[in-house]
Design a protein that fits this description.
- By secondary structure, the chain is α/β, with parallel strands linked by helices.
- It is 30% helix and 16% strand.
- The chain contains 11 helices and 12 strands.
- Bound molecules: S-adenosylmethionine (SAM) and iron/sulfur cluster.
- S-adenosylmethionine (SAM) binds next to strand 3, strand 5 and helix 11.
Length: 329
C-alpha cells in the first residue's frame, strides 16, 4: 500500500469536497425535487468527525477542501469549523460553495476564520425568474451576499451558473458581465443527471459548454484558452485584456475524468469515489467503530475501486437516485 492517496489509474487524490448538510433553503429545479426527505440531524457527520477525516488525509497528500451541500451556511457555527480546518498544517486551499442567501451576514466571519476561496451560485439576474428557478430564493438576498463577498480579498472567487435552455440561456453574457463588474470569475456548469426531478427533461434543456462558449465569443470575440486550472474540473478561458476567467464545467461535452483529483464526502459520511457512480466507503462507520487512525488505510484501500470515469447518459436520465444536494456539488 502506498503512503499517498493514489487510485488504481495512477491519479493522485488531493481534493476533498464535503457536503455539510443535505438541507437547503432553496429547491433549485435541477438539483432537488419539490418534496425532499432530508437526513435526521444525528445522521450528519459532526464537525469533530469532519476535522478528523481531513486531518487524517493531509499527511497522505490532501491539499484542498471544499465545503458544500446542500447549503453549507445552514450548518450552525460554520466559522468555527472553517477556523479549525484552516489551522490544519498542510491544507493549502479551503473553499466554500454557497447559494449566497445568507452570505451578507457570514462573508466577513468566514473570511476572518480562514476561508480563502468562494464560489457563489447565481443562475439569473431577474428576480422573478430567479425565484422560479430556485422555487423559493430571493435574488436581493443573494445580491447582498455577493456584494459583501466582493468587498473581501479572497484568493479566488467565482460565480457559478447552470444554464437551461429556454429558462436562462439568454443571460449567459449578462451573468459573466455582472460577475466581472463584481470582481468574480464566472463558470458555467452542464447539468448532470443526479436524482429524479419533475420540472424538466434534462436531455431537452441541456445547453452544452460548446454552445455557451460560442455565445460568449459572439458577444466579445475570440476567447483564449488558459493553461491555468483551479484544481477542479473547470477548463478556463479569458477575454483579451480582461481580468476575469471564464470556466466551463462540461461532464458531457468534454469529459474531465482522466485527470480527476477528487472524492466527495456526503453529509452522512459516505466517501463517494466518483460523482457519477454509487460506490462509496462508509467513513462514518470507520470513524465511529475504529477511530481516526483507521481513516487513512480505509480510504487508501477504497481508492483502488475508484472507477475510470462517470457514465452519465442524458438519454437515460435517472441513473442515480442521489440528488446533487446529497452528493456535495
Ligand atoms: N447550495 C450551494 C449552491 O447552490 O451553491 C452548494 C451546493 S450546490 C449542490 C453546488 C452546485 O451544484 C451549484 O452551483 C449547483 O448549480 C450545482 N448543481 C446542482 N444540481 C446539479 C446538477 N443536477 N447538475 C450539475 N450541477 C448541479
Ligand atoms: Fe440548494 Fe444549491 Fe441545490 Fe440550489 S443547487 S437546491 S441552492 S443545494
Amino acid at each position: 500500500m502506498t503512503a499517498g492517496l493514489q487510485d488504481a489509474y495512477g491519479r493522485a487524490i488531493t481534493y476533498l469536497r464535503i457536503s455539510l448538510t443535505d438541507r437547503c433553503d432553496f429547491r433549485c429545479v435541477y438539483c432537488m425535487s419539490e418534496s425532499m426527505q432530508f437526513l435526521p440531524r444525528h445522521d450528519l457527520l459532526s464537525f469533530e468527525e469532519i476535522v478528523a477525516v481531513v486531518r487524517a488525509l493531509i499527511p497522505a497528500g490532501l491539499r484542498k477542501v471544499r465545503l458544500t451541500g446542500g447549503e453549507p451556511l445552514l450548518r450552525r457555527d460554520l466559522p468555527e469549523l472553517v477556523q479549525t480546518l484552516a489551522a490544519l498544517p498542510g491544507l493549502q486551499e479551503l473553499a466554500l460553495t454557497t447559494n449566497g442567501s445568507q452570505l451578507a451576514r457570514w462573508a466577513t466571519p468566514l473570511h476572518r476564520a480562514g476561508l480563502n476561496s468562494l464560489n457563489i451560485s447565481l443562475d439569473s439576474l431577474q428576480a422573478e425568474r430567479f425565484h422560479r428557478l430556485t422555487r423559493s430564493g430571493q435574488l436581493a438576498d443573494v445580491l447582498a451576499g455577493i456584494a459583501a463577498a466582493a468587498a473581501l480579498p479572497w484568493a479566488r472567487r467565482r460565480l457559478n451558473a447552470l444554464i437551461l435552455r429556454g429558462r436562462n440561456d439568454d443571460e449567459i453574457v449578462a451573468l459573466a458581465e455582472f460577475a466581472e463588474a463584481q470582481g468574480f470569475d464566472m463558470a458555467y456548469i452542464e447539468e448532470m443527471p443526479l436524482g429524479q426531478i419533475e420540472e424538466h427533461d434534462r436531455a431537452l434543456q441541456q445547453v452544452p459548454s460548446t454552445e455557451i462558449l460560442a455565445t460568449l465569443e459572439q458577444a466579445w470575440g475570440k476567447l483564449t484558452p488558459l493553461a491555468w486550472g483551479s484544481g477542479g474540473p473547470a477548463r478556463y478561458f479569458q477575454r483579451p485584456g480582461a481580468r476575469q476567467r471564464i470556466g466551463l464545467i462540461s461532464p458531457h461535452s468534454h469529459n474531465f475524468c482522466d485527470d480527476c483529483n477528487r472524492v466527495r464526502l456526503t453529509a452522512e459520511g459516505r466517501l463517494l469515489l466518483c460523482l457519477g457512480q454509487e460506490d462509496a466507503l462508509d467513513l462514518r462507520a470507520v470513524l465511529r467503530q475504529q477511530g481516526e487512525a483507521a481513516v487513512l488505510p480505509a480510504v487508501q484501500q477504497a481508492l483502488q475501486r475508484k472507477p475510470a470515469g462517470h457514465t452519465f447518459n442524458l438519454e437515460q436520465p435517472v441513473q442515480l437516485r442521489r440528488h446533487m444536494n446529497m452528493t456535495g456539488g
